[in-house]
Amino acid sequence: MRDVHKRSPQRVDRRISLDQALDRLKQCYGNQDFELIGHSGGAALALLLAARRDDIAQVQTLAGNLNPRLWVNALGLSPLHGSLEPLDQAPKLALVTQRHLLGQADRSVPASLYPTYRQALGTKAVCVQSVSLPGVTHDQGWLEAWQYWRDQPLSCASPGN
């Protein structure tokens, strides 16, 4: 999981490759926009892509590592030198519709890290929703949760959500 955040040439190329893949899908199938879905470190990639593109309708994350710097500190891990940090793009991410599914029993990416991410987006974030899922761990409980939440419209009545 930690490899996803390292900025080696291959890692940066992966992000660019994902960017190019979305362009290709748009070209081949006529997509106007995309919904990006990411689990764990894939959530950070989805957010990094969303921050650099103007055709992302929304991002949904499951057990998402939304703030790798904070995650490393909170878990007492060695620093991820040169890692790509989604919150470095907080003003852009504040304009992206988002839903973050948080496993309350997740010890790998604790749900307790989410409020810092949300606060960093600020009060002008257009639509950011979090869903707390009791008993869901980093790798268990997601099938049922996703089957329910994947097609639910985001409820963004309150910007502080």
From TrEMBL:
List the SUPFAM superfamilies. Answer: alpha/beta-Hydrolases
> Which InterPro entries does the UniProt record give?
AB_hydrolase_fold
Q: Which domain of life is it from?
A: Bacteria
Task: List, alphabetically, the Gene3D superfamilies matched.
Answer: alpha/beta hydrolase (3.40.50.1820)
What is the designated name of this protein? Alpha/beta hydrolase
What is the species listed in this Swiss-Prot or TrEMBL entry?
Pseudomonas chlororaphis subsp. aureofaciens
